[in-house]
Amino acid sequence: MDIFGAGMEPFFRQRLVRLEAELRARLDNSTEQLHEAAEAGPRGVVDFKDMAAEQSLATVDEAQADYSAHELEAVSGALRRLADHSYGQCADCGQAIDLTRLMALPATPCCTACQAIREQDRTHQM
User: Fold this and answer.
1) Which of 8, 28, 53, 125 has the most CB atoms in a 10 Å sphere around its CB?
2) Taking Cα atoms as reference points, which of 122, 115, 72, 80 lies closest to residue 95?
3) What is the maximum alpha-carbon separation in the chain?
4) Domain 6-125 falls in which CATH fold?
């Protein structure tokens, strides 16, 4: 298993900072669109199909904004772990996170096994 090493820190920091900027821009854009839609109000004659379509789009936009906010939180946590030199270690078991997993999910706080446990616990709580 390949693991994260201190020499890889600049690569991951750059990647996380770029991801953070993209997420912030996406959230700013979503907020701007919501404000514009609220200010515009109803447009002329609106039928129920138009209203339903607009509500569906608003729901999707809100879900995307929630996802982006959650991801931004994860990226901020990863940047903190880089700063305190715990990046690459599982937050649950303390073992090294496989480098392949970090490449795919640079903000992940957990190894694959612990993530599976978290997801199983979440499923049982529903």
Assistant:
1) 8
2) 115
3) 62
4) Four Helix Bundle (Hemerythrin (Met), subunit A) (1.20.120)
